[in-house]
Structures are given as C-alpha cells and as structure tokens.
Amino acid sequence: MSYLKLSALSLAMVAASSHGADIQFQNELASNGTLVLLQEQDQTLNTSVLSPQAQQQLQKALNTAQFNGEYNKHVQLLAPVDSNYERVVVVGLGAQDELDAARTAKLGGNVHGLLEGMKVTTANIDFATINGQLSNTELAAQFAHGVNLRDHSFDTYKQSDAAKTTLSYHFDVADQARAEQAYQALSHIEQGVFLARDLTSEVPSALTPVEFAQAAQQLRELGVKVEVLGPEQIKALGMGALEGVGRGSKDGARLVVAHYQGSDDAPIALVGKGITFDSGGYSIKTGASIARMKSDMAGAAAVLGTVKAMALSKADVNVVAVMGMAANMVSETAIAPGDILRTAEGLSVEVLNTDAEGRLVLSDAMWYARSQFKPQIMVDVATLTGSKVRAVGNRYSAIFSDDEQLVSELTAAGKAVNEQVWRLPLGYKDKLKSDIADIQNIGSGGPGATTAASFLQHFAGDTRWVHLDIAGNALASKADGEVNVGGTGYGVRLLSEWLLKTK
C-alpha cells in the first residue's frame, strides 16, 4: 500500500464515516414516498394518516395476510388509493412488553434491508404513538441506529454502483429534540463500529501491522494518546512471544497502544489480538477457511473501535487499548514447531503448533497492559479458537472468567446490544504442561477454547480479567439485523455498552 493510499484509507476510517442513511426526526409525517406503519402484536393499527378508502384497502391486505403485528413480519400495499404515498409497509413490532433497545435496533436493520430491496428512496416512519420498554423517542433512535449499522458496507474494491439506493428516513416522534439527542449518542458508537468493520474487511496485503498502527495514530485527532512499539522495542522489553510470531513477516510485530483518559480512575485495559493475516505458520492452514484469515485481527479492531467510540462520546471513563499486531507467515525466519519462546512475564513457552499464535501475542500484550497501566480490569478480545465456534457457533461469543460480577455485567451488556456472550469454563491448566518449558502453547487434550483461555490466565496476574473468544463473530457471510456482509465490528457495541452503563 502506498503512503497516499494509506493516508486516505486511514483518515476515512477514523474520521466521521461517510457511510449511513439520511436520518431525520420530525413532529409530523410527510405525505409522499413510502409510509411505514408499526403495529404492536394483537393491537389495533393506527391508520388515521390514510384516507378512508386507503384504510379499507390496507385492512383487506392485512386480513388476507392474516397479519397481527408479529415481530419482524411485514405486509406491503402498493399505490394506496386516494394517497400520495407510493406504498404502505406495515411492520410488526411484536409484544409491547418485549420491545426493548436490542429488538428495536435489530428490527431497524431488517427493515432497512427490506426497503433497500424494494428500491425505496424515502421512508416515513410513524413512531409518535409507539411505546415499549422505552419511550417512542428512544425507540426511534434505536431503530435509526439499526438502520445506519445495516447500511454500512465495505465497497472499496467494487466499481461504483450508480443504481445503489440512497435512503432518507423521516421519523415522526413525540419529542424531536430528545430523539436527536438519543441518536447522537448512538452515532458515536456507530463510528467505532465502522472503524472496526473497515479494518476487519480490509485485505491482508493492504493492512499489515504497519498500516494498522498508522490507522490507529489517526485517533490522536480525537485526543487519544497513541504509541507504537516496533520490533526492536518489543524485543528490548523481553516480549519474545509477540516478537516471535512477527518474525516470519518482513515488517515484524508491532505493539499499538491507544489511551483515552476521560477520568482519573484506574484504567480499564482492553487487549486485542491483531493477527493481520494468519497462514498458520509452519502448521499451515488448509482449505477454504484461510481466505477468511484477514479477520484474525478483529479483536484488535474491536478494542480500537471502542476507544474511538469512547473518545467521540467524551465518556467519563479511562480506557486503554493494547493491541499485539503481527502477520503469522511462513518464511526462513519464522518460528517452527518445537521452538521455545520467552514471554515478558518470564514464562517459557514450547510452541507445539504455530497456528496457536494468537495466545502468544496476547500473552505479551496482557503483560504490557498490566505492567505499564496497572488496570483495575483487563478484558482481552480475540478470534482465538475454532473450538469456540464448535462449542457455541457464531451467534454468541464465549466468555471466560473467574470474576462473577464481570461475567454478569458483560453478559447483560451483550444482551442489550445483540452481541451476546455465553460462558464457558476455565480449567485444564494441567493439559498445558511441557517437559522442556514452563508451558506449551496448545493443550494435550481437553476442550480447545478452554485450554487457550487457561493459557492466557497465566498472564492475567491478580488483575480482574475476562477473556472474550470472538472466533466466528468477526465476518458475516449474509446480512441480518444490524449487520451487513463483511466485517461485523463485533465487540465494539458490547464493550461500549458495558463501559458507558456499568463503569
């Protein structure tokens, strides 16, 4: 990647995103374009905005479809009589007492996908009389949040599509100012998500540890302190595990630190795995999955995106992201199975499998976070194991911790933003014993996601610690809810919700 291309890319990633639908909140419904009516399950639909003839026409369509407002279901009426609307789309909200922020944002994403498929250009959505667990202004903001998240796409390498629909949304709400304020707060989170998505979606030859570090440095414009350690500095600090993984690529490893200090509290450290491409090293990957290994830096992207979200929000938190960055490649200088690496913690690690490299870079990044920042809490985020995917799939990430309070807080935060976590056990440290080193980097038996988490536990010290394994969550092959195809930015909304609501 050339410097000019990188500068444009990194600035686009860090500045306010150009992606997004046109969102407007107002106190009345426009009378043209597409009308979207929202119906609570088993409740009477408010159709007073339509003429009596159009109301009859719509009711007949609803009766024919046996529609009663079930969540995420819809009925479409084209060219309603005696009306300037091109169409009316009735969308089911489900039961009123179940209508929370998460379900509303997900519905917003799905409705955006639906309207895009219909080639709609203007959508007028009546939220003024809708209430659930939140007010209609807050629900409208969450719906708009889902719309904008779904609208984002990574299209750097596509020819421009002049036919792509640009959608304008006009939300009728009871309190325009409150809705705009609520959405503004959510839009800051969106910018962090978009940064994480774009970094994750970028191709590996265009996003090495060097380019990732340069993109992170753009956050300085937001008041974030950013430091980048190169291979010699990493080696001088004794971070032999991180240095060893990066040894196989021409640029070597980087340690990227992004610190947003919005309070004087002891910091919360977010540690991200940043393998910009994972060939598996000499334990080389086979099959089609290797083409997805550009996303093996999604943990680092998530924690960097979270710092951006906190900085834009001017949040009253002290959060530092520490990202261990490397490309796990095959070369004459790459580590080999059977090698021994010395971590900054002082523990020696027998490398039995070079494809278990993420835990190696995290071990030194966790040590750095603890030794340099003395955090009150440390959360590491990593696309770490295929075992996690086999255990809980890609609808949940896996959470590991002995800290019951942190597990409870992060589980609740994930549920609130549709980035759910499922707890898996720690243990099986005995499976990591080595005959010639302190520990080995893979377990000799035991569940793979747990032995990987137990490896990391060696480097948590006495700091309150959580490990999030997001393998399978980083890339989406099909659009659903707030997530479009490509990088998902998984973890940014979860961590932001936790930081803003709990810390």
TrEMBL record:
InterPro entries: Leucine_aapep/pepB, Macro_dom-like, Peptidase_M17_C, Peptidase_M17_leu_NH2_pept, Peptidase_M17_N. Mn(2+) 2 binds at residues 273, 278, 296, 357. GO terms for biological process: proteolysis. It is an enzyme of class 3 (hydrolase). Its main location: cytoplasm. It catalyses: Release of an N-terminal amino acid, preferentially leucine, but not glutamic or aspartic acids; Release of an N-terminal amino acid, Xaa-|-Yaa-, in which Xaa is preferably Leu, but may be other amino acids including Pro although not Arg or Lys, and Yaa may be Pro. Amino acid amides and methyl esters are also readily hydrolyzed, but rates on arylamides are exceedingly low. The active site is at residues 285, 359. It is found in: Cytoplasm. This is Probable cytosol aminopeptidase. It comes from Pseudoalteromonas ruthenica. The gene is pepA.
